Here is the input.
Amino acid sequence: FGLFARVLRDSPDYRYVHSGTVGLELADSIAGDGHKLINVPYDCGFYFSRHPHVAPQVFQNPNAAYLSSGVPNPDSIQSPLNIGLENSRRFRALPVYATLMAYGRAGYASMLRRQILFARGVACYFLRHEAFDLLPTDLRTAAMIAEKTYIIVLFRAKDDALNGELVKRLNASSQIYVSGTSWQGRPACRIAAANWQIDHNHDDRVVRSVVEWVLNDWRREHS
Here is the structure.
C-alpha cells in the first residue's frame, strides 16, 4: 500500500514516505491491494507487469472450448479467464474504476494527507504515554514521527499482562478496531488509517478516549 504515496507532492512533510516510491516506474512488475486507500471491498488486488504474455501461459485453460476467448491480441485487454486462478469472479474492477473517477489524484492526495496526519497524531500520543511503547522504539521524538510515520501505528502496553489482552479489550469497545501482531517476539497492536471518511481531530480523540478507558479499567481490576 506504500505505492499510493506517489500521489503526494514531494513536500517536506511527506518527503520520507514519498522517497519509498522513487524508481517505481523501473519495476518489472507491481502488485497492490485496493482495500486501503482506494477503499473498495477486500479481495481486490491488482498487478502491472511488463510481461503480459506470462499470465496466460500459466493460467489459460487449454482444453475447454467454451472458455475460448479468441485469438490473443497483444494490444487488446486480456480476458480475465486467462490471467488468474478463478474462472468466475465478481466485477472487482468496477468499484475501483468508480472511485478512481470520483476522486482522481487530488482527491486521493487529500484523503491520504488526512490519514497520515491522524496516524502521526496517534503515534505522538503513544510516544508520550507512560503506559505504552511506540514501536519501533527508534521513533524517539515527535520530529521523527512527523517525518517517518505513514498510515500504520504500532504500539504495545509496557505491562506484559495488559499487553496480552490489549487487542481484545480495545476491540471490545466497538469504537475502534486494532489488529494484533508481534514485534521482536512480543505481542503488539496495529492501527491502520485507511478510511476515506477519516477526520483526524475527531478520530484521534476517539482513539485516546478508548485507550484511556481500557487502561483505567485494567487498573481498577488490578488495584
